Amino acid sequence: ILTVGVLGTQASAQTPARDFSLKTLDGKQVTLKEQRGKVVLVNFWATWCIPCKAEMPILMDLQQTYGPKGFTVLAVSVDDDGAEIVAPWVEKNLFELDGKKQKVNFPVLLSTISMAEDYADIFAFPATFLVDANGNLVRRIDGALEEDDITAAVKGLMAGR
Asked: Where are the strands (E) in the chain, listed by range?
């Protein structure tokens, strides 16, 4: 069980992130463990969550900027109806990136609210976990991301790879 505190707290550099295995919208299995070597931003969100939708462009920008350098966003949807709700939402909702409306550019994984609770006592969305290239949890952010703050955190972890 993760014992990271609340809003924007730093974890010990040796706090292992809890592994999970979830399916993408196209049925591929993804585990956190297989991302080892990359800096990973795990974002728990839902289609009905207004702040979650508002931060999608931030996540897309991070993925575009740092993805080719060994970073990935894993967006874990906690919608109860899974792919039935999430797949059409992802197809329909476009977000501003480089002056154009685009679909999300990172993997969307399917989960449940109970998985989020089991993962780290998440009861509000969005909830974001930043994992270093060694698989250690370095930051938890409860609530909406602040673009400058999360960008600086990712940039710092990428520099330390």
From this structure: 9-10, 21-24, 29-31, 39-45, 71-77, 95-97, 100-102, 108-110, 127-131, 137-142
